[in-house]
Design a protein that fits this description.
With about 325 residues, this protein is α/β, with parallel strands linked by helices. It has a single domain, classed as Rossmann fold (3-Layer(aba) Sandwich), CATH 3.40.50. Helices cover about 30% and strands about 20% of the residues. It has 10 helices and 11 strands. The strands form 2 sheets. It has a 7-stranded mixed sheet with strand order 6-7-8-3-9-10-11, sandwiched between helices. Strand 7, helix 6 and strand 8 form a beta-alpha-beta unit. The longest helix is centred in the middle third of the chain and has 18 residues. Bound molecules: adenosine-5'-diphosphate (ADP) and magnesium ion. Adenosine-5'-diphosphate binds next to strand 1, strand 2 and helix 1.
Amino acid sequence: MTEHVLIAENLTQEYVLKGGLFGKDRIVRALPGASFTLDAGKTLAVVGESGCGKSTLARCITMIEEPVAGSFVLDGRPASPDTRAELRTTVQIVFQDPYGSLNPRQRCGQILEEPLKINHPGMPAAERTRRAREMLELVGLRPEHFDRYPHMFSGGQRQRIAVGRALMLEPKVLVLDEPVSALDLSIQSQILNLLVDLQERLGLAYLFISHDLSVVKHVADDVIVMYLGRPVEIGSKAAVFSHQRHPYTKALLSATPMADPTLRKERIRLTGELPSPVNIPPGCPFSPRCWKATEKCRAERPELDDSAHRVACHFPE
Ligand code: ADP
Ligand code: MG
């Protein structure tokens, strides 16, 4: 039996946009309801265009923000303000920008030790340092890097430090929010290989967020395709890449350059912009851009079906 280390149910987040002098406040429905599960030791990729709510999901799952509705269970424990402190060690996050996420005034070693200082205040300094040095090696950095400042590292090395810091508390779930998007292509694969290697060694589960399907193809076990804050297709990587059921996934994949020629498809051009999450269209949120949309699609929002390769579409492929 597979163990779900993360179960999210109807996770919902909204932001209030303050109106101007005479304007009314408006609600941004960044995440109107996401349900999914992540299995121990596996990688669940979350893909979708910029603005579809991926980072919002990441902030909710890592308890940086509290969702306005819905719930999630981490490693068997329901997340709530009461369990937040203990669950902080169960789930950790790595951000896209390895420049912005590291304190420029801290040395690499201090950055790695910081989570232990905060969460295990009783741990002797020598033990902290020992663990930080061990982590340095685990993420592929050298002992002499311990005393260097972030600006002395390359982008890829900084992302190694960020991954190391996230692992110091031995989490079970790592949320990776566009972890390689800011890196050169050649460096991207090094970091992806590191992540794959760490996952195998440590049995980590990844919630791997990316707008880039060619990256996802490298690392995912399962894939969630998000549109305007809602999963529209969920399936195994093989299923989603070989047979897209949702028109949006088809369009997204057709626009992604793939090295694998068997995956090359005729390019589908999506017309129109991603609608604003302030004004989510009624019916299927994708209907204004969908070439298959009918009256039913414009009126009635499809729910995810119950198959192994799930889709929320009235006319799936
Ligand atoms: P993604 O990571 O997929 O690009 P985000 O989760 O960052 O998307 O954003 C989803 C939507 O929520 C966007 O429309 C964004 O403008 C909006 N949003 C995100 N954070 C805030 C916030 N703090 N206040 C208002 N709107 C926000
Ligand atoms: Mg984002």
